[in-house]
Amino acid sequence: RQGSELAGWAMGRWTYEGIDLNHNFADLNTALWDAEDNDLVPHEFPNHYIPIPEYYTFANATVAPETRAVIAWMQRYPFVLSANLHGGELVVTYPFDMSRTYWKAQELTPTPDDGVFRWLATVYATANLAMASGERRRCHYDDFTRFGNIINGANWHTVPGS
Questions:
Q1: pTM here?
Q2: Which Pfam families does the entry link to (predicted)?
């Protein structure tokens, strides 16, 4: 009822070591976009699997043990769809979460299969009673009800490594 600012939206977001788990994954978007710009996709740079950058696997990289565990799990059991849930705004964001123009804080940055992600987001948002309620609270100054409680992640705020 208080909204995320007053209810402690950041509680549990950082590890004991001070790593923000919400932003701790490797930036795979930039590698994809660079390959697209150089006409390397899909023959030389397949866009269905982008490997974790080598620098990210070094022992001294700032990578939380939780993130390393998720990476190991993903490499052992490849999958094509995932979701993460955490407190804060009642909105479904869908990829990409990072804006393609590196200096823009907000930019519509759809994936090639944007329609599928928009459909999945809409199905979840309309089935979630708290999100679908007209009495729902707002977070910060954003009112996502006018968008059906869904938004392209980068069009809300860019998050590299999400």
A1: 0.82
A2: Peptidase_M14
